[in-house]
Amino acid sequence: MDPVIGLDIAKGKSQVQAFLQKKDPYKKSFVFEHNVLGLHDFYQFWLEVEEITGRPPVVVFESTGHYHEPVLQFLEDHQIVYYLVNPVLSHEAKKMSLRKVKTDAIDAFRLGEMYYLYDDLQPFKKKTVKIMNLRNLTRQHDALTGTYVQVKLQFQTVLDQVFPEYKTVFGALYSPTSLRTLLHYQTPQGVKEETKEKIAEVILQQGVKRSYGWALDKAHQLKEAAERDPFRRNLYTSHVVSLTMFIQLLLQYQRHLSKLLKEIDALAEEFDEYEIIRSLPGIGGKIAATILSEIGEIDQFNHPKKLVAYAGMDPSVHESGQFKATINRITKRGSARLRQSLYNAVQCGITKNRNPKLRAYYDKKREEGKPHKVAIIACANKLIHWIYAILKSKKAYVV
User: What is the per-residue pLDDT across 23-66, written as a single tens digit (0 to 9) for each?
Assistant: First the structure.
């Protein structure tokens, strides 16, 4: 016998369907909660299947973000072999029936059947705690950066309605000095009522390591900006309230992002692979940490094409009869964050010729008539082959 248990995992609970062997389901499907009692009931059922078949049943379930984590940790603690299936693969398996029926019990049934249908399923190898910590930090940084960008856009919208000329004063509008100064002088009227000397003192109090002369010059520019500003008086006090809130949010996000970057750098430096990836020109600390955390252990890939597929950068193939597609887009079925990091690394590498080999390859593709985006994808594919090679050899990239 070859027993398997299919789990359709949802938020806080899982649907269970066991098979003693192919086409031989065992008992009716049932549900258990993701708590101590529920996991205990599942384990008793697992032991029951093991006793009947004489073999420990494997468990099959699909990746569901963070919902599967309690089950995964339980299986790890009890050393139960499990298969964590890509949702794309399980979705295709669920469509094999002619009947269009969707229930948790049927989904658990299909997941159990998958074990017998696919010979190339590999038991899941959980990433180390250090890698998962690094992945969590880099993903949190990406998520927070996305929110930070949205707040910046909202801030600019309000600033354009309150004090648009302020953007001409400081070279870096979002620097802490600029934002804190704006927190003191949010409207042209407030600037006009203050002396240049007092404004200069306020600027210096924001922690900027500049001379009094520089601060006085900025105060003069701020005065001129207030004179040029089209809003002679503020009609909407609500805009000022919003501006204050957005400035405080931006400063808070900057502090959180800075702290996250320090944590990411400190953790990434504990990996030898971090410096190996950083040896590629154009790849900085944050990009290297993201690539490392998304790939995990390189030993799980025995060929560079598998790493390419994991990044979702393998070309899709469409052939039917005499028809053979000539435009094949990448599948985008792998790690979106790994793919985005590779794109960013390519952009950094070809800019200012930081990576001459990559730039030459990009120029070659462009000369062949490839559009910019197609050339970038080709470079990302080339880059991931280089990453695979240096991680396997444990040797830094040689320019």
Answer: 899 999 999 999 999 999 999 999 999 999 999 999 999 887 78
pTM for this predicted structure? 0.78
pLDDT per position as a tens digit, 293-323: 999 888 888 899 889 988 888 776 545 555 4
Start-end ranges of CATH 1.10.287 in the chain? 132-266
CATH architecture of 132-266: Orthogonal Bundle (1.10)
Fold annotation for 4-126? Nucleotidyltransferase; domain 5 (3.30.420)
Please, where in the chain does CATH 3.30.420.10 lie? 4-126
**Within its chain, how far is the Cα of 100 from the centroid?**
34
pLDDT in tens, 251-278: 999 999 999 999 999 999 999 999 999 9
